[in-house]
From TrEMBL:
It comes from Aspergillus sclerotialis. It holds the Pfam family Lipase_GDSL_2. Residues 14-219 form the SGNH hydrolase-type esterase domain. InterPro entries: Iah1-like, SGNH_hydro, SGNH_hydro_sf. Signal peptide: none annotated. This is SGNH hydrolase-type esterase domain-containing protein. It comes from the Eukaryota.
């Protein structure tokens, strides 16, 4: 049997900020990227293209510099996981206004490099924040100078869902999954805000009020896999063949 019959692995690209970049960090225990790699072992290459500190204004500039051409690789999946930095409060250098944030997401989705590859795209909402864990709240001095708030981050999660609905792009709604775990009900005050006591659930899901703990990454993985199975059931790892055969059928 000739190895010429086999093509290189298709790619599953994870594009995002520090939450994506650190999704394979050993220091953080369970990792979103590592879990995907295990699920798609010998079926897809899971590529981490996370950029700590980036917002969507940075993303639209760097995207065409790394996204592969068809001659280089075939991209089967692309996750777009931004908003955590864009949702900094106005006046912060990482802040991106909501209308611009939405347009930047659309630019990535409609970019010529994306269109040529025609990958299965998943938008991922930014997770909620926990104001109690964030730096910037110094109530002992009577000063509160946060860079982010729970209510403002909610707007960016909603914006991701709106872009997904408008463009018919599936959304892994991590924000809602976290908030449901924290016991939130629509119309009620937000866990993670100073309007309520500190949330033990968010404290467990987040390391510093923004970045994810191992249990937080488990939620992301669960939501992404659920979204894949709901929208592309044929792309469930169990439904995909191995790129190369099992050892008993390996090329001689």
């Amino acid at each position: 049997m000739s190895t010429d019959e086999y093509k290189p692995y298709d790619q599953f690209i994870l594009f995002g900020d520090s939450i994506t970049q650190w999704s394979s960090s050993q220091e953080r225990g369970f990792g979103f990227q590592a879990a995907l790699q295990d699920a798609y072992m010998r079926r897809l290459d899971v590529i981490n293209r996370g950029f700590a500190g980036y917002n969507t204004a940075h993303a639209v500039k760097v995207f065409p510099k790394f996204f592969p051409t068809l001659q280089t690789a075939t991209v089967r999946f692309l996750t777009v996981f931004f908003g955590a930095n864009d949702a900094c409060l106005p006046g912060n250098d990482k802040h991106v206004p909501l209308p611009t944030f939405k347009e930047n997401l659309k630019t990535i989705i409609h970019h010529p490099a994306t269109v040529v590859q025609n990958p299965r795209i998943l938008l991922i909402t930014p997770p909620p924040i926990n104001e109690y864990q964030l730096e910037g709240f110094d109530e002992s001095k009577g000063e509160v100078h946060p860079t982010r708030t729970a209510k403002y981050t909610k707007l960016y999660a909603e914006a991701v869902r709106e872009v997904g609905s408008e463009l018919k792009v599936p959304v892994a709604d991590v924000w809602t999954a976290f908030m449901k775990a924290a016991g939130w009900e629509e119309g009620k005050e937000l866990p993670g805000s100073r309007d309520l006591p500190n949330s033990d659930v968010l404290q467990e899901l987040l390391t510093d009020g923004l970045h994810l703990a191992p249990e937080g990454y488990r939620v992301v993985y669960t939501e992404v896999m659920k979204t894949i199975r709901e929208n592309w059931p044929d792309q469930d790892p169990e439904e995909l063949p191995l790129v190369f055969p099992v050892s008993a059928e390996a090329p001689k």
